[in-house]
Write a structure and sequence with these properties.
Length: 261
């Protein structure tokens, strides 16, 4: 969250939430049902054409947008891109990953390949479960973030930068583990926990701990991102494509463009 301006306006926060939550949900259903009906009329093979839940799982998986190249270009000092636009794109791209994971886990609970077709009554129940998990995960993240900020504010941890930095990592992991332990979304809780810590706890850290934690988090983010892209690239050469259907990726990209339009 350090790439987002330190003092985002309420309008910016609301816009990011609308784009990330509402936009991702809409995109998921558009891509999911478009894929389902394409399979139903025979345009796509190997997709369940009797139960839309498998297609919705795919929609939730593919609807999260990660505009790495776009952000790299927009963040270039030479372009002097509008900071509001950069904040909207960056905030939405980070939050929609968490939203997509919650949606995927929610749909997975209702997916039974050998069961009956998805009834209309199941869709509201799935959406209610999604909203409940999202709200409770946000409350866990925000609540623990405020507790951590209070601890750092009213103790003398700043006199011990080594323990200060170590505890910051442990508190973040504690937030993730707590949410997952009670059946919520650890990613969602951790995201909002990070938002609270960046706005309230950054002022409580000593200069040494502030710089150290920022560099360590940035280094870990770069390493994990590189590992993910490396793993995905290797799968292109090591994967098995016996049932490759060229129509599926073409239609999927078209549905994604339609869903994000």
């Amino acid at each position: 969250m350090s790439s987002i301006p330190n003092k985002p306006t309420n309008t910016r926060k609301g816009a990011i939430a609308v784009y990330a939550v509402v936009g991702t949900v809409i995109s998921t259903f558009i891509v999911g049902y478009a894929t389902f009906y394409a399979a139903k009329i025979g345009l796509i093979r190997d997709i369940d054409s009797t139960n839309p839940m498998e297609a919705l799982l795919f929609g939730a998986l593919i609807s999260a947008v990660d505009p790495v190249a776009t952000l790299s270009i927009m963040g270039s000092p030479e372009l002097q891109c509008d900071q509001l636009l950069y904040s909207l794109v960056f905030g939405e791209s980070v939050l929609n990953d968490a939203v997509a994971i919650v949606l995927f886990k929610t749909f997975l609970k209702y997916y039974d390949p050998d069961g009956p077709d998805l009834g209309r009554a199941d869709i509201p129940a799935a959406l209610l479960s999604f909203v409940t998990v999202t709200v409770l995960s946000i409350l866990v993240g925000v609540g623990l973030g405020l507790v951590v900020s209070f601890i750092y504010r009213h103790t003398s941890l700043s006199s011990f930068p080594k323990f200060e930095t170590a505890l910051l990592f442990l508190f973040c992991y504690c937030c993730y583990a707590t949410a997952e332990a009670v059946g919520l979304s650890g990613i969602m809780a951790l995201f909002f926990n990070g938002m609270v810590l960046s706005h309230y706890n950054s002022y409580n850290l000593s200069k040494v701990a502030h710089v150290t934690s920022e560099q360590i988090f940035a280094s870990l983010a770069t390493i994990t991102e590189t590992a993910v892209f490396l793993y995905m690239g290797m799968n292109v050469f090591t994967g098995r494509f016996n049932n490759w259907d060229i129509m599926f990726p073409i239609l999927a990209m078209s549905f994604c463009v339609l869903g994000r339009a």
